[in-house]
Amino acid sequence: MQITISPRPVNSKDVTVVTLVAGTENFLQVRPGNRKVLSIGIGEREKMTRRKLVDVCRQVIALAKTHHGKKLSVSAADFVFPHLGIPEGELAEMLAVNFEMANFSFVKYKRRPAEGWDFVQSVTVVGRVSPEGKRGLKRGQVIGRAVNDCRTLANTPGGEITPSGLADAAVQAVRGSRVKVTVLKPADLRTLKMGGILGVSKGSTEEPRFVIMEYLAGGDSKPIVLVGKGVTFDSGGLNLKSEQGMADMHMDMSGAAAVINAVAVAARLKLAVNVIGIIPAVENMPSGSSYHPGDILRAMSGETIEVVSTDAEGRIIMADALTYARRYHPRLVVDVATLTGAVMVALGNRAAGIFSKDDALLKQFQELGELSGDYVWPLPLWEEYEGEIKGTLGDIANIGKTRYGGAIHGALFLQHFAKGMRSIHVDIGSRMTAVDGEHLAKGAAGAPVRLLVKLLERYR
Prior knowledge:
Layout: E1 2-6, E2 15-21, E3 27-31, E4 35-41, H1 50-66, E5 71-75, H2 88-102, E6 122-126, H3 131-155, H4 163-173, E7 180-184, H5 186-191, H6 195-200, E8 209-216, E9 224-228, E10 230-234, H7 243-246, H8 254-268, E11 274-284, E12 296-298, E13 304-306, H9 314-325, E14 332-337, H10 342-347, E15 352-355, H11 359-372, E16 376-378, E17 396-397, H12 406-417, E18 423-427, H13 449-458
Parallel strand pairs: 1-6, 2-4, 2-5, 5-6, 9-11, 9-14, 10-11, 13-17, 14-18, 15-16
Antiparallel strand pairs: 3-4, 7-8, 8-11, 12-13, 15-18
Helix pairs in contact: 1-2, 2-3, 3-8, 4-8, 8-13, 9-12, 11-13
């Protein structure tokens, strides 16, 4: 999509003029000269909130697509709500990010219809736009396109995005930038004694990979390390998932996809930050060589993991990745994973769960979530829960002793391997796919790329 700026209204019958109006109805009018005007009802302007404005930005594109509008014109003034106090550059970024996200559909494997795809080709923003606003539009497009790249990667079938394919995708995402990518193979993992990754991957004919992305543009400052779960297909292993539970499990690498694209955005925007992306990539498959319930794996840290369920594999591979992260002496470690279905039970599909022992960090992430549109909400990491994942035959068990509090058990497991580092766990199991009412195409939601970018921009 092309986004341009014009100081004067666009006078062309090929352009659909989009206007925000009072009330709740949306309607299309064809005026003299075959001029199309699409009116979007936003209720009372004084009752607009930041979250509603994100939704309105997406509605502009979603409704235009419904009415086959290819070229749009919007008034910059329509999106200014003084009571919200959003700076112009920030508002422009919000517009561009959400225009791009709403214009996305995953059509890679579909036959092109005779009339063509319904994507919007261009949006002209009419009115006076400051240099700050112009920069915001450009930044927003970079971020929005990266979110869509994340969605494309997560939507791609597991037969195509294998662990080696995910590693290749990481290389491609930052090609031509100053990001250095290192891909470790099984022999390297054995040397590093990454027993968690090697154990989980045993059942698959696809070899595991361990991807390290290094973007170093922050001088002598310690890096922020982003760790993304990269299970390219999760069958559940020998604890096989149900038919319904397995359907979307090619998206179990959504955390990895988000980390890849957040690092790519840091490079494209030339952020003055040191950031390391770490991606453990495996397939979790059932076979004669699979790891078993009851197995005990020795992680890179030297501690043993008692496998109670082979379907709690993500935390096992993340344990090795978190241990590897210590090599960078990071100022912050953020791990992102479609770790549990339990977080969806707790929060529904509108927010990701965040877990940390650091209350100030939790507060900062909530604020960044509101700014970015990747909403998050904290859940506890109380010591009282720790006994529920204590191993019987090994040091630590990969699921809890009770079926309740599964998201907390998973977070505590990861916290165990992140001790001594300032860290936060983001469980995006609840935000893996878009839901009705978001004005986004079905499939991967692209969370939390926007949140991670805001973190890299603003964390001090």
